[in-house]
Design goal:
Oligomer: single chain
Order of helices and strands: EEHEHEHEHEHEHE
Strand content: 15-25%
Cofactor: [4Fe-4S] cluster
InterPro entries: Aldolase_TIM, Cyt_c-like_dom, NrdG2, Organic_radical-activating, rSAM, rSAM_sf
Largest sheet: 8 strands, mixed
Radius of gyration: 17 Å
Protein name: Anaerobic ribonucleoside-triphosphate reductase activating protein
Pfam family, one: Radical_SAM
Keywords: 4Fe-4S, Heme, Iron, Iron-sulfur, Metal-binding, S-adenosyl-L-methionine
Length: 233
């Protein structure tokens, strides 16, 4: 597993808990608004963290941190992810996974083994329309399989969508909320134009107004248990 980043203390990444965030390198999506470009681009991080180094750091935080968030990139691309999480769980930490949902087999394996305490899945657009702007290949079936697995897992969870054109409009929102109906939490995230993977993309496309975001929230609240707006800072 290639670890490209480590946030040693976060108050916002695991709801209600103090946690560290481990960022894996590599992603199979090319979202132009991604803020973690250094974890997506070919070549890998200039100074990756050794897995043992990260585990050693976490051992020093036992009793001081509640949780570890594994984010990316896309963590589920790494075949040794379960081994890493097992070692984290053995230290007594809660584990939250951030995923794009493209690897349902890995996701279900982690949940079935009891390695996850919280799952957050990003849904970028209509699952039938990821290609070509977000993905190099279709992945509708995988995304729907991951959503279903999360909804039926019994785990605390959330789904998230970054709201920017041309990916999100009212019709797309209706599709997404229909797919995640009954979800515990759905977060609509305001687009932040700073430090994006493909800034030139937004010479043509732009974010969605705060007023429209509030309208989207009202629509989503009819299908999910709770919907929140996360505004860019």
């Amino acid at each position: 597993m290639i670890i490209g980043g480590l946030n040693k203390c976060s108050l916002i990444d695991y709801p209600g808990k103090i946690g560290a965030v481990v960022f894996t390198y590599g992603c199979n999506l090319t979202c132009p608004y991604c803020h973690n470009a250094g974890l997506v681009n070919d070549g890998g991080p200039e100074t990756p963290y050794a897995v043992d180094e990260v585990l050693g750091f976490l051992q020093t935080r036992v009793g001081r941190l509640d949780a570890v968030v594994v984010s990316g990139g896309e963590p589920c691309l790494h075949s040794d992810l379960p081994e890493f999480i097992r070692k984290v769980k053995e230290m007594g930490f809660l584990v939250k996974l951030d995923t794009n949902g493209s690897r349902p087999a890995m996701l279900k394996s982690l949940m079935d083994e009891g390695l996850l305490d919280y799952v957050a899945m990003d849904i970028k657009a209509d699952p039938a329309a990821y290609m070509p702007l977000l993905s190099r290949r279709p992945m509708e079936a995988e995304l729907k399989e991951s959503v279903s697995a999360i909804l039926h897992s019994g785990l605390p969870h959330e789904f998230r969508t970054t709201c920017t054109s041309p990916f999100i409009d009212e019709a797309v929102l209706d599709t997404i909320t229909g797919m995640i109906e009954g979800a515990e939490l759905y977060a609509l995230q305001e687009f932040n134009p700073k430090h994006t993977l493909n800034p030139d993309f937004f010479d043509v496309y732009e974010g969605i107004s705060p007023e429209l975001l509030k309208r989207f929230k009202c629509v989503a609240e009819e299908k999910v248990r709770r919907c929140v707006l996360r505004m860019a800072s």
